[in-house]
Amino acid sequence: MKDDLRLTRHPRYEGNIMPIEKPSDIPERWRNTPIEELILSQNFEKEIIPQESPQLSVATCIEFRYQPRLPSSFAYILRRAGGHLIGSEFSLTYTLAKGVRHLALVGHNDCGMTKVADHKQKMIDTLIEQGWYKDRAEDYISIYASRYAIPDELDTLQREYLRLRRLFKKLEIAPLFISLAKSKFYLPTWYFRMLINGDVDKAVGSESPVRDEDILPLI
Ligand SMILES: [Zn+2]
Question: pLDDT of 169-196, one tens digit each?
């Protein structure tokens, strides 16, 4: 597979993502799991066999240029702007209650949530057009824009990964980065370093850098 050069040489992503060019590039801890099946399907066109019970949850952005390569009867899909699950913990809990033990947390390049400031006025105008009062529309968008806006896709993926590790300690979470142009998964370099340093299992406890008050923000 040729590298997606425009992506991997982009200043924001260069050195920060690693290609998964062959099945043996998939981290050992994901072998023989539904996460491996997801990656094999997306990067190597291997067919996923549907199951009687749900195997996986996939959390990702609402981005229309990415659709997970998944059959019916395999995975739950949670889609939120920027891939933030804040406010969707209930949905994720439901999937766990149905037997899911693996979550793929998928970020992507060129995310619209890195440019929320550019869209704010248009969104306010949209709400007004939909019949909202101007003040209420402005308040709503300014509150939620700060909640959903992300400065950098990979940092945000890392923060959300660490937050969810604290919140769901038994859930195996795979942070993945999808290239929109190639529709292939990459591995965030920060996660690769965690694997090498043996830090993945430390992220559930008191050594996590996530502050307690940031674990379950209600807004
Ligand atoms: Zn996005």
Answer: 999 999 999 999 889 999 999 999 999 9
* Cα–ligand 1 centroid distance for 55 (angstroms): 24
The C-alpha atoms of residue 123 and residue 23 are separated, in whole angstroms, by: 42
pLDDT in tens, 18-39: 999 999 999 999 999 999 999 9
- Number of separate domains in the chain: 1
**Residues whose beta carbons lie less than 5 angstroms from ion ligand 1:** 61, 63, 111
Å from CA of 58 to ligand 1 middle: 14
Listed as own residue / partner, the contacts of 20-27 with beta carbons closer than 8 Å and 24 or more positions apart are 20/184, 20/185, 20/186, 20/187, 25/187, 27/187, 27/192, 27/195
Cα 113 to averaged position of ligand 1 atoms, centre (Å)? 6
Does 121 map to a domain? no
Domain membership flag for residue 21: yes
Q: Does residue 20 form part of some domain?
A: yes
What CATH code is carried by the domain that includes residue 183? 3.40.1050
What does the pLDDT look like over 70-88, one tens digit per residue? Answer: 999 999 999 999 998 988 9
